[in-house]
Design brief:
Blueprint lengths: L2 H15 L2 E3 L2 E5 L9 E4 L5 E4 L8 E3 H4 L7 H4 L9 H10 L4 H4 L4 E5 L8 E9 L4 E13 L5 E9 L19 E5 L2 H8 L5 E3 L8 H5 L7 E4 L5 H16 L3 E4 L12 H7 L4 H15 L3 H12 L3 E6 L2 E6 L2 H14 L8 H9 L1 E6 L1 E11 L4 E10 L5 E6 L1 H5 L1 H11 L9 H12 L3 E6 L2 E4 L4 E3 L3 E4 L2 E4 L6 E3 L2 E5 L18 H23 L2 H8 L4 E6 L5 H11 L15 H8 L2 E2 L2 E5 L6 H4 L19 E2 L7 E2 L6 E6 L7 H6 E6 L6 H12 L7 H7 L2 H20 L7 H21 L3 H23 L3 H13 L1 H4 L7 E4 L1 H10 L7 H7 L8 E8 L1 H5 L5 E8 L5
Parallel strand pairs: 10-11, 10-12, 12-13, 17-20, 20-26, 21-28, 27-32, 27-33, 29-32
Antiparallel strand pairs: 1-2, 2-3, 3-4, 4-5, 6-7, 7-8, 8-9, 14-15, 15-16, 17-18, 18-19, 21-22, 22-23, 23-24, 25-26, 30-31, 34-36, 35-36
């Protein structure tokens, strides 16, 4: 390792882990996983940092992963020159791959890679497979991202030229003689790593390439092929297949496998850097290879017994689980007899012959259960072990969870296994189950969980069903059903909501034209609200609130068509919303906690039947505006803990009539009214296209928007406050909250315009519509409740002489029972007394004063004196 790079890394390591240097070693560093002062590294070549507690922790990391910037920009830092044409390649092989350049000169040359759709050019390390035929493999010094015609991109680390099928790459000058072992690995760098440790090796260049042409030159030689491909599923499958082919061709075959820890794949070059290619290490890799090639469960069990000296354990073979045991007493007795009779092969010894005779092997499960990781819901204190069950027949795989109780009892484990994987019968006992569980759970990984779909503030990531987005980058779900985002492992436990997210190649960006054609500026505002909902948590973090959107209008105005299409944009097909009047309080609380940075849409909440309408109180939504819990519930644990999940989404209300609620709720609403006045044949065609669009053709918008998180929030931060100030400066607007809400949505229209390439004229239309909506909202909160307006309209119709008991000309005194009696007598339908008593005190047109006994002027006109209990109002209006 170059001195300047080593010094930089040593400085960083000391700052991060507080090492003490003892001779050539860094010791007593604090392990980030177990917290013990057992971390160590080689001070002269600090390629790998690892914990000394191999059995109890075993954490390790490569400095390339810890400090990638220290190994970047080799093209700029070490450019090739006429005098030194391999300078960049030399630096890469030395500093990144840890090779002694003096020992491998002439094995490679420096090349150059350029792609017309690549994000950069880079120097390459070229390995000639057949230079005369132009067949080569080149390793990139720096990764190149190439974008195809459909807009999809991929990172490339290597490039092939020519057809290498049937060939291999071997270090120039490597001879193959009788008695040699040739290790067959995938990469040229792996072959170099082994060769530098005295092991002859050749690279097949891909796991599926069987080098029959290269091997043809060595047919008839007494050589052994050691298949040492990458230890991933594809590599292991290829090794088994290639061994069968090579044995048919007359070659003796063995295998070597690197045990894998964690998700990051370890290859032979990694072992070279870590100093793990010593003789004892290689013996372990050979042992793992022997297990792979074992021809029976018994043969595999005997290998394990020889290696570990254990006399009872489970053996996985051909997707079945067996129990292998050697009774110690019987073994001792038979061993003496075998020795006396000389009934054994001298190469394997009497112990092996005895084990073959006395070993008991029987099946305990017609499957293999792999405990993948531990997951826990911190809110409910529930936890599970997530497992994969591999079937013996047909190669089928099932995944499911086991609770702690189900892995602690053989009968419960048996029942749960059968419910996860049909036909996967466990016939073992509790002791055998304890061995299985203990074997897997000794160093099991823990995966963070969230119980919703959408944005997790804790992880700063969008966690969806099959993809996650973090830092404007997309992460697909792995084969163990969780997301690996940097050093974070996370998954969603929510199974009630599934989003269908289309890929880039099917995305039809023209949908924005149809939204404008069908719904005009109000349609664009609704899109901006859905778009802004994807950043609701971040916006509340900035401004402490996120507005509600209210979409109302007459039947047939297109509300449902618009809302159902908006849901398609975020991957939810055939959905509009839920009716809060048809759900319980507990159900509403669960619906509100299912999503984060996605809307909650409430539909058809207006009811002519007032008894039903009272089931849902709009004031339940007050706390959702600021992202606080809408409901608290007790945790079932015998203590006094409560669960108050915060509201993480946004609120959309859609109904035929406008919301009638308290002023606090009315101020939180941005109101959009849709009608049929603007409908044309062209708008109908556009609306029909939106309704017919498959979700797969537009839902990539979800990825397009969330990967633009940084840019969208920058636009929002720069515009929201300015729009709020412009609105509050209007003489018609008096309420800061109204200005803030509409200003927020204006800023989101600007952010959306950048994402969907919105014409400036459309953006101006939307801005004017939002300004008008803000003014109308101010007027709405200054008006009386609809029930109060109906009351005064009925009062004016029936006449003050009939209803006003006050003798003071400036006051109105009304007895509500008398009002009802007169109204019904005149064929009117008055509001219920309950509703009147609820809303009359907030009357604005006639300020409410008090409820008191009044000497009735009406009774005096009838020549009777009577005191009546009345609601008294100021005739002159609000104060």
């Amino acid at each position: 390792m170059r001195d300047d790079i080593r010094d930089d890394i040593l400085r960083r390591l000391d700052g991060a882990y507080r090492f003490k240097q003892v001779g050539d070693w860094l010791r007593q560093g604090t392990c980030p996983q177990c917290g013990k002062k057992e971390l160590y590294a080689n001070a002269n070549a600090p390629w790998v940092v690892q914990c000394g507690r191999a059995n109890n922790c075993g954490w390790s990391a490569h400095v390339k992963d810890l400090y990638p910037d220290a190994f970047e920009k080799f093209n700029e830092r070490y450019p090739a020159t006429t005098k030194d044409p391999n300078a960049t390649a030399d630096a890469y092989l030395s500093f990144v791959r840890g090779f002694d350049i003096t020992k491998i000169r002439g094995w490679y040359r420096q090349g150059h890679f350029k792609h017309f759709r690549g994000d950069r050019q880079t120097a390459t390390v070229v390995f000639d497979i057949d230079r005369a035929a132009g067949i080569l493999m080149e390793r990139f010094v720096e990764t190149v991202r190439v974008t195809d015609d459909d807009g999809d991109s991929e990172e490339r680390k290597a490039n092939f030229e020519g057809r290498h099928k049937g060939l291999w790459w071997a270090p120039p000058g490597m001879t193959v003689e009788d008695g040699d072992e040739i290790w067959l690995v995938e990469g040229c760098l792996d072959a170099i790593a082994l060769h530098l440790h005295g092991i002859k090796a050749a690279a097949t260049l891909s796991c599926g390439n069987y080098p029959d042409k290269a091997l043809e030159a060595h047919k008839g030689k007494d050589i052994t092929l050691v298949w040492a491909l990458d230890a991933d599923p594809a590599g292991l499958h290829s090794m088994r297949k290639h061994v069968k082919t090579a044995r048919v061709a007359g070659f003796e075959c063995k295998a070597a496998i690197i045990p894998q820890k964690g998700r990051a794949k370890t290859d032979w070059n990694d072992l070279h850097l870590a100093g793990r290619l010593e003789e004892t290490d290689v013996e372990e890799y050979r042992y793992q290879g022997d297990l792979l090639l074992a021809e029976s469960a018994k043969a595999k069990g005997i290998l394990i017994w020889q290696h570990t000296k254990s006399t009872a354990f489970a053996v996985e073979f051909m997707s079945r689980t067996y129990w292998f045991s050697i009774p110690p007493a019987a073994f001792s007795q038979i061993l003496e007899a075998v020795k006396e009779a000389g009934d054994y092969d001298p190469e394997t010894g009497p112990e092996y012959a005895t084990a073959v005779k006395v070993a008991d092997v029987h099946q305990i499960a017609a499957c293999v259960v792999k405990f993948l990781y531990f997951q826990k819901n911190k809110q409910t204190d529930e936890s599970w072990y997530y497992t994969r069950v591999d079937y013996a027949n047909g190669g089928k795989t099932e995944k499911g969870t086991f609770t702690g109780a189900q892995v602690a009892c053989a009968s419960e484990f048996k029942k749960r296994l059968l419910s996860i994987a049909p036909g996967a019968l466990y016939s073992g006992n509790s002791g055998q189950l304890n061995w299985l569980v203990g074997h897997h759970l000794d160093d099991i990984k823990t995966v963070d969980t969230v119980d919703f779909i959408g944005y997790s503030k804790d992880h700063k990531a969008y966690v969806f069903n099959i993809v996650a987005v973090a830092g404007c980058k997309v992460y697909p779900i792995n084969d163990e059903d969780f997301f690996e985002i940097g050093k974070t492992s996370v998954k969603s436990l929510n199974s009630s909501l599934s989003l269908t997210i289309g890929d880039r190649s099917r995305y039809q960006a023209e949908w924005i034209n149809d939204v404008h054609a069908a719904f005009g500026a109000k349609g664009l505002i609704a899109v901006a609200f859905f778009f802004g909902s994807l950043f609701a948590e971040q916006i509340r973090g900035l401004d402490k609130s996120f507005p509600f959107l209210e979409i109302v209008g007459e039947a047939g105005s297109g509300k449902s068509t618009l809302i159902e299409f908006l849901w398609k944009l975020v991957g939810r097909a055939d959905y509009e919303g839920f009716d809060p009047n048809k759900s319980t309080l507990a159900a509403r609380a669960r619906i509100f906690s299912q999503v984060a940075n996605l809307p909650i849409c409430m539909i058809e909440s207006d009811r002519e039947d007032t008894a039903k309408a009272r089931q849902f109180d709009w004031d339940e939504l007050k706390t959702a505006y600021n992202g606080r819990a809408s409901r608290a519930r007790g945790v079932k644990n015998g203590g006094n803990e409560t669960n108050e999940p915060p509201f993480r989404g946004s609120v959309l209300i859609s109904q035929n009539a406008a919301v009638n609620a308290s002023e606090a709720i009315m101020q939180r609403l941005i109101h959009l009214n849709f009608d049929t006045s603007g409908h044309t044949p062209q708008s109908k065609i556009a609306a029909d296209r939106l309704a017919a669009m498959p979700v797969e053709t537009v839902s990539h918008f979800l990825i397009k928007a969330t990967t633009a998180e940084k840019a969208a929030l920058e636009t929002y931060r720069g515009k929201a406050a300015k729009y709020e100030k412009a609105l509050i400066d209007l003489p018609e607007i008096k309420t800061i909250r109204i200005a803030k809400n509409h200003g927020q949505l204006m800023a989101l229209v600007d952010a959306l315009a950048d994402i969907v390439s919105m014409p400036s004229a459309w953006r101006k239309e939307a801005m004017l519509a939002l300004r008008d909506a803000a003014i109308e909202r101010q007027h709405a909160i200054g008006a009386d409740h609809q029930i109060v307006e109906e009351f005064w309209e009925m009062y004016d119709y029936l006449g003050s002489d009939t209803l006003n008991h006050s003798k003071n000309g400036d006051l109105i005194a009304i007895n509500l029972n008398h009002f009802n009696k007169v109204a019904i007598a005149n064929n009117q339908s008055p509001p219920t007394l309950t509703d009147l008593k609820k809303h009359l005190k907030s009357c604005r047109s006639h300020r409410f004063i008090e409820i008191k006994a009044v000497n009735s002027a009406i009774e005096m006109r009838n020549y009777e004196s009577r005191t009546v209990m009345c609601w008294v109002f100021d005739k002159r209006g609000a104060a």
